Amino acid sequence: MPNFTLVEELDTHCKLGYQIRGVNKIWAVKMYWAGNENNPKNTQQKSLRIPYEDSQASKAQARRKANVEWREFLEKTEAGDSPTTIRTVQSVARNYNRHIRKLAQKNEEAKKPIHLIRGGRGESYWTHEKVDAVENILGHLNGFWSTLGNKEFRHITERELDTFFEWSRANKDWSPSWTNRVITQIRMIWLYGRDNGWTELKPSPTQPRKILKRERDGISKRKNGEQ
User: Distance between CA 66 and CA 56 in Å, rounded?
Assistant: First the structure.
């Protein structure tokens, strides 16, 4: 772990200080879980990328940025995440896939339906066949995930997910019913994430039938000379 010189404690388990890099001093923050702060596995130390100056103005600037990092650290640890790992939608989708495959395997072994699909149509149960169908959908979604970048899963917004329909129209030749099936799986991934405390978002991506209906209504009005 890089060198760290303490300047002040911002909170329990959060310290503001600086690192020395060559001949330069850079403000840094050191954060750790309850327990042994000298254990590297329990500690995250981040450069704030602000040149260190022995002044109140420089310290105030560093303190503001350190507090932002500290809030992010607490969000992750309180959700059971590692603060040193970025949980992307790609990783959550993979975990969801593994989770439903395990449920299908349990159903198969138990020889009776014990796990309901949450958010699915009706009260059908996970089977290997259903998981195979979901895996096919998740494969198609990889292209859409790449448009969201590798940002933190908990920071993805409803507005970003609403771009899915336009992305699908530009990149896929899907029927409205199939598009709705894909949207269902997007919702399922977020429900899975909410169950695990990784997000508070409960998304409802734009439904293609609503958009297509508005477009048909608009075409009809123009044909009839309506404004």
Answer: 15
